[in-house]
Task: structure prediction
Amino acid sequence: MNIGLILAGGSGTRMGGDLPKQFIDIYGKPLIVHTIEAFDINPNIDYIAVICKSDYKEDLNIWVRKYGLTKVKWIVDGGDTRQSSVENGLKAIEEFCGGDDIVVVHDAARPLISQRIIDENIEGAKEYKAVDTVIPSADTIIKTLDGEFIEEVPPRHELHLGQTPQSFEYALIKKAHDHAKENNINTATDDCQLILKLGEKVHLVKGDKLNFKVTTFEDLLILKSVIKLGKLEVK
Result:
């Protein structure tokens, strides 16, 4: 069984305004609905859990019915951090999951995820137990310790930009979160960091530039342009 875990608990403060970015209307439907739909139509996804701010759970329930998102089985309260939100999601599906079931963890603010990326995440997680979606860095990355001077220029061919999904066997990701809790690790910005702390390897899945995270107003303009262009091409 393969379960999509959609993270929508963030406040989206970098976008400006009071409405979190994942709930902004994009051509007649909330951004998060565009994201959930990508998982809902994928034949390899069996169920979906959405981790969201408690203030929006009622709205999300309405949208699930309105847009016919039939695979959404859980709507779970988000935590104070990304790590705690994932942990809440894992707890919610625990009784439903076997150890070798696959959990596909994805940011709600990446609505242009392709079906290929979802499929390859599931295939990779079944083979390697843990995978991360990445794209090669097109730019030279500068490391600085103080924001004033260059500390190091790492070789570009060694660097990739992390995206989501990050996908795992349920037993492994649950073990990683339990280990983090036992060792007072609570600031991980993604789940692969926790897997690495167990001494386990994480396989790479090829991402896509269109699978970007909507973080700023400029990102929102790009998203709308891509969706509009897609609709024109379909016509």
Summary: The chain has one domain: 2-134+162-234.
